[in-house]
Design goal:
By secondary structure, the chain is α+β, with helices and mostly antiparallel strands. It is built from 4 helices and 6 strands; from the N terminus they run H-E-E-H-E-E-E-E-H-H. It folds into 2 domains: about 1-75, no CATH class; about 80-130, no CATH class. The strands form 2 sheets. The chain has a 4-stranded mixed sheet. A two-stranded antiparallel ribbon has the order 3-6. It is rod-shaped. The structure holds zinc ion.
């Protein structure tokens, strides 16, 4: 056991190129990608800082290696960027906007109708509604079509 331990214990990286520790003997501040993920973190583009080794019958060479990353350089997983947020908001806005009267509602319009209920009622009914209802045009420019 001590011989295998010494083979895997190379904190200076002289033997393996990068600091190497036996399995489960990694120092504080290092974590595998999976361990980072469990903490809601990701490597964030940093290089491999160290590795842990253990004996494995399945792996070629009888050694399994897991790479370690520095937790102080890790970054949060999938930050909600403004672009993602904006695209999502636009998609939701399109679903809440009536294509006929351009009124934005506080709920998603029924896709079966393709328009808001007042527009659907006005198109389905023979008698057109009185045109006294003013549409909110202030602020929004219709130039973009
Ligand atoms: Zn409408």
């Amino acid at each position: 056991m001590s011989a295998a331990f010494g083979k895997c214990y190379d904190p200076s990286g002289a033997r393996h190129g990068i600091p190497t520790f036996p399995w489960k003997y990694a120092p504080d501040g290092y974590a595998t990608r999976r361990q980072l993920r469990a903490q809601g973190l990701r490597p964030g583009g940093q290089p491999v800082a160290a590795q842990v080794m253990r004996r494995s019958r399945r792996r070629k060479g009888g050694v399994a290696v897991a790479y370690l990353y520095r937790t102080d350089l890790a970054k949060p997983v999938r930050p909600m960027t403004s672009r993602r947020c904006g695209a999502l908001a636009l998609a939701m806005l399109a679903r809440r906007t009536c294509p006929v009267c351009r009124v934005v509602y506080g709920y998603c319009l029924p896709t079966s109708l393709g328009m808001c209920l007042p527009c659907h009622d006005s198109t389905s009914s023979t008698a057109p509604p009185p045109s006294a209802t003013t549409r909110p045009r202030g602020g929004i420019d219709d130039g973009q079509g």
